[in-house]
């Protein structure tokens, strides 16, 4: 994709670069990403040709970001990020934020950096229920006070051809005029399916690693879990199993509410949301549609729309299921980043910029 040289972006809480890579694919140059997890550096830099700043976002000053943006007349600065909801960062020295006891304090750090850099365009991606929080309302009021046009929506990823039933809140804000997400590209009639994305990968067994693809690799299952997955049906629940296979907690009445664990995926629909635990058969509907095992790292990466050639590790000895689980499960699907990037570029075009 041709890069538009009138616009450049910085990605806060960048991880290994799902959002960044989508923006790049759309044609936006990424200058830097900031994340305090240094294990994300290799993949972020290798795939995106952008600097990884290993830091707590709370420690970053607006001035240092302003120095990174291209210093050209009429240049458009974009600041994007996906401030996670979490308990307090041990690295944060923002005592005031800590005292408020607010688990969304990182959103206030994003807001501070918007205030200090005044980018022309802002985008934020987050969990849908953030839209119901006071802190989100105050974030929107802050943007409007700073003369941004704002829109946000609850995106169902299959509506944009992403093969995964993930829902995300996507906010766009611009000082240049009205801005919104591009129109949906798919409908239930042509949602991309799990089969289309991972159906042609070679079969492997639980605990095995494919000889030619070190991340086509899946966790071993205990003998009882092998029996359980053999008894599982696509889109079924553990209620399909023989009583002898059920967990004690599922035998109690209260256990009946946990139906979406130990599930098997269905070939002919988008996959369930890929979480950081996708490799664990017991934590969701992460059983392969027909093989008796959980998803491999490769399958999760493809369902998160990372391209096949995305480099996740420098040395195969570094591959860790837990670490890559966090990197891949935490990412914004690359193609959602692409939709955000396309929306920003369309907005500029609509405003003759
Ligand atoms: C949801 S993930 C972001 C995923 C990323 N946008 C992508 O598309 O791949 C949130 C990231 O925030 C990072 N993080 C959490 N607290 C942070 C902080 N205080 N400063 C910098 N990064 C932080 C985590 O290490 C994690 O990589």
Gist of the model:
The chain is α/β, with parallel strands linked by helices.
Keywords:
binds S-adenosylmethionine; Rossmann fold; seven-stranded mixed sheet; two-stranded antiparallel ribbon; 9 strands; 353 residues; 16% strand; 12 helices; DNA Methylase, Chain A, domain 2; single chain; alpha/beta
What's the SSE pattern?
A: EHEHEHEHHEHEEHEEHHHHH
The CA-CA distance between the termini, in Å, is: 19 Å
Shape: elongated
Tally of separate helices = 12
User: According to CATH, what is the topology of the largest domain?
Assistant: Rossmann fold
Structural class: alpha/beta
| Strand composition percent | 15-25%
Question: What ligand species are in this complex?
Answer: S-adenosylmethionine
- Count of spatially separate domains: 2
- Strands ordered across the widest β-sheet: 3-2-1-4-5-7-6
Instruction: Quickly name the level 1 CATH class of the largest domain.
Output: Alpha Beta
User: Could you estimate the helical fraction of the residues in percent?
Assistant: 25-40%
Provide the CATH architecture of the largest domain. Answer: 3-Layer(aba) Sandwich
Radius of gyration: 21 Å
Low-confidence stretches: 87-100
Name the CATH superfamily assignment of the largest domain: Vaccinia Virus protein VP39
Major sheet size, sense and barrel closure:
7 strands, mixed
Q: Number of DSSP strands? A: 9
């Amino acid at each position: 994709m041709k890069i538009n040289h009138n616009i450049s972006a910085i990605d806060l809480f960048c991880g290994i670069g799902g959002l960044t890579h989508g923006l790049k694919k759309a044609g936006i140059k990424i200058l830097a990403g900031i994340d305090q997890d240094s294990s994300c550096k290799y993949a972020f830099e290798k795939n995106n040709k952008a600097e990884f700043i290993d830091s707590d976002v709370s420690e970053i000053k607006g001035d240092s970001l302003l120095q990174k943006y291209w210093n050209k007349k009429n240049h458009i600065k974009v600041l994007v990020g996906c401030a996670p909801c979490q308990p307090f960062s041990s690295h944060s020295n923002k005592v005031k934020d800590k005292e408020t006891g607010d688990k969304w304090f990182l959103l206030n750090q994003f807001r501070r950096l918007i205030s200090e850099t005044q980018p022309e365009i802002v985008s934020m991606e987050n969990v849908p229920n953030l839209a119901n929080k006071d802190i989100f309302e105050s974030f929107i009021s802050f943007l409007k006070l700073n003369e941004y046009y704002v829109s946000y929506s609850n995106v169902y990823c299959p509506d944009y051809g992403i093969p995964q039933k993930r829902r995300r809140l996507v906010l766009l804000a611009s000082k240049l005029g009205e801005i919104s997400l591009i129109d949906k590209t798919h409908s239930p009639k042509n949602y991309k399916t799990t089969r289309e994305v991972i159906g042609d990968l070679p079969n492997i067994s639980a605990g095995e690693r494919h000889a030619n693809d070190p991340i086509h690799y899946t966790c071993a299952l205990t003998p009882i879990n092998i029996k359980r997955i053999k008894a599982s049906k696509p889109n079924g629940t553990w209620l399909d199993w023989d009583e002898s296979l059920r967990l004690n907690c599922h035998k109690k009445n209260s256990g009946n509410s946990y139906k979406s664990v130990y599930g098997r995926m269905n070939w002919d629909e988008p996959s369930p949301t890929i979480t950081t635990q996708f490799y664990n058969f017991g934590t969701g509907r992460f059983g392969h549609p027909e093989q008796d095992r959980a998803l491999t790292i490769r399958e999760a990466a493809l369902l998160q729309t990372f391209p096949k050639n995305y480099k996740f590790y420098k040395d195969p000895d570094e591959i860790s299921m837990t670490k890559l689980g966090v990197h891949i499960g935490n990412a914004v699907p690359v193609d959602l980043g692409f939709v955000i990037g396309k929306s920003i570029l369309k907005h500029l075009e609509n405003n003759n910029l």
